[in-house]
Structure formats: C-alpha cells, structure tokens
Task: structure prediction
Amino acid sequence: MKKAPTHPLRAARTRYNLTIEQLARETNVGAATIWRAEHGHSINAESRRRLCAYFGITSQELGLAGTVESERKHPAAPSSQEVLDDAPLSSAPSLLRKYTSLEEASTAIPSPSRHAPLQEQTGLWLVLGASQLASTIKEHWTPDTLFEALHIVSQSLQGLPESMRLNLLRQGGASPIHARWRMSVTESVQLQQSFAQSIRQAWQFSHATSPEQVFSVGHALRVLLEHIHTLLPAQVHACFYASIYNLIGSALHHMNDIEAQEQMHASAYVAATEGHDCWNQAQSRNWQAIAANVSGRYIQATQFIEDAIRLIEHEEGEEYMCSKAHLLANWAYNAALLQDYAIVREKLEESRRLLEGLSPNEEFDHSNWHLIAGNCALMNGRYNEAITHFEQALRHIPTRWHSRRVLTLLPLAEAYARKREKEASLEMAQKAASEVHLLSSRMLSERFLEYQGVLSETFPRDRTVSTFIAQAKLVSYHP
Result:
C-alpha cells in the first residue's frame, strides 16, 4: 500500500524536533488545532497566522493554503473543539468574545511605557473592560456575578510574585512567562495553592450561575494557565488542565452541546492521565457517562462508570468516597433507564452506605443521593417514594444553587402530576420556572418543556394548566 505523503506542517514541525504539544506552547495555538491541520482539516485564520509567523513561511508552504481558499468559497465557523482551543465560543459573553487572546486585548488600547506605574496599567485595563461592560450586562451578567468571576480569575494569580504579575500585565499575556523566571519553593507552592483555590471557586460558581458565564470563567482560567504553565511542575499543570476542561465540559452540558462536551471531557481524561491524577480521570469518565446518558447510550454510560470506579476503587479518603458514591448512584440511574431495578436497588444501597459518616460535599452528598433515588423511583412509577426523596433533597440544597434546585423541583412537579395532584405540581413548577429563566440553560429549558408535556397529557383541556403553559413561554430560554 502506498504511504500517504507527510503533511508540510508536520514536516516543518519534525525539522524543528518539536512535538505537537511543544509547538502548541511555542505558538499559543491549541494542540488539537495543530493535529487537525496536520490531518488536512481547516483551521481558523489566527491559528494559521501564528503558525506561519513561527516557521517564517507562507500558508501555502505549510500546506494550509487550501483551507484558506476553501473558506473563501464556503465560509464556516470553526469547530467546537477548535473554538475551545483558540478562542471563546461565539455564545460566550462579549467580554471574552471580542478578543481571542490577552495579546489582542492589550493591543486594543495604547500601551504605556515599560516602566509605567501599576495605577496607569490598571487604568488602561479598566478602559478596556468598561468598553465591553454594556454588552456584557445585556448577556445576563449582573454586577455581582461579574465581580465574582473577576475575583475567581484574579485569585489564580495571587500566588505569583509581584514582579511576575506586573510583567504579565505589561506584556499583555502575549506569550507564556519565559522559563528564565525562577521561583522559590515557597513561591511555587503559593502559586499552586492559589490556582487550585481559583478552580475550586469556579466549580462553586457553576452551581449558581448560567452555563455561558461558567464557560467564560473556565476559558479565562485555561488562558491564564497557558501563560504560567512554565512555572508549574508538568504533573501539576496537567491536573489543572484536567479540572478546567471538566469545568468547561460541564458548562457545555448545560448548553446542550453534547459533541463539544464529550470532546472536552476526553481532553480532560488525557490531561489527568498525563498528570497521574486518578481522581480527575474518574471525574472525566463520570462526565462522559453523563453525556452518553443524555444521548441515550445507556450501556456505554455504564461502561464509563465501571471504568471510573476501577480507577479509584483502592483509594481512601472522603473525596474518593464521595466520588465512588456518586458513580454508584449514577450507575443506578442508568439501570433505571434500562428498567433493571435489581441493579438500581443494589447500587443505590452501596452508594448510601459510602455516604454514612461523611461531611457535606458539593460534588455528591445525601441531597444528591435523594435526587437520584427520587428519579429512579419516578421512572419505576413509585410516586410517593419519589416525592419523599425529592423533598428530602430540597431541604439541603443551598438556595443559590439554582441548577440543582431546578433539577429537583421539576421531577418533584412531575411526580405530583403523575399522582394527579395538580395544585402541588404547579406550585413546584412555578418555583422552577423563575430559576430556569435566571440560568438561561438550554438543558434545563428542555427539561421544563418535557414537564409541560407531562402536565398537558395528564390534565388535558384544563384551563389552569393551559394558562400556566402559556405563561411559561415567557420564561423559556431563547438562544
């Protein structure tokens, strides 16, 4: 069989003795984008420009000219994965959408002198931020959520020595911090702790706000990590990447972009494997199971869960116990969809036992367990049992965790409807409706529509129900 010719970009990379990952770091182009280019796929204009500038040759010489001509004839948006590698999604708030890098943002305003005081630097950045603020607020950002997002992102840099923070600001994030910068052991630990804290805060933020806002914060953390990765041990920054990819994937789940979600969690799994991080490996597999479940691939979802359990089955500690309990409960949920109720009972009981004696945990705790147990009972037609579980879950969910509240209120409303308790059902649905509108989540909006279908089917030609459904259209999510 005739061997396929080597792509010019790959040949150029090989001449420089670079791996894809090394070239990605040198050019600030996503590794997945470089892989696609070497396999003949179209990449965006900015990525082509950076690659050509690095090698000092034209797009045609790099084998990228054909994609340019194709895009002129058939203009198309970059793929979801390429967007995640090189720029924010088009649906992300305009604060991050207008500029694809910190370098572009920094060149949008006059640059101060190299030795300008911090106050002048900060003032210029405030001008840039203010110019974007009006359109950002239009996209459901409130001053509180904007401030919280800024706090999360700035937290990630608190561990940097002041000289490095100033250098990053002056350079506009044009490239990763040069390896010549040296940090003491204490400074390195502080940087790792501050970035880890920022990621934890971003996950907490995800419970209380819209998926587009979570996506923007996740993307900002990914960009910052690219700029400071030379200061971190390889294993540490791989683990950070895994957690950030999973965060972005969770936002894509709520945005109902399942294909992009699966790509994100697959990237998270690879990063976690490189970092020898079995916890994030298991988290990635669990999210892959959730994506497979949404797509109706219940057997594959169970396989992902089994793989995740194998990864952490010998690990100890509360964090791992919570993860195991979460995985077992999700296994039970998949079994309920397959109507294998013997497995449902077995896995729910195993999950419940693991939770005994554990303190509350935002990933998975007794409220989550009751939510999943309630959904399993609902699918089995045991409506009284389902209602009891959902009400138990609601008692322990923080009021600002809007997404989890909606995911509990809607099946509770359905359970009441199935029992033909109309008033109770509508009461729960009204509570869910206001939070669905607040979050602007495609996924939750679809769940709300599914509930309305159950309501119409159960109470046909009921005037109160018809009025509720008509009013509910006012809070539907409009992409």
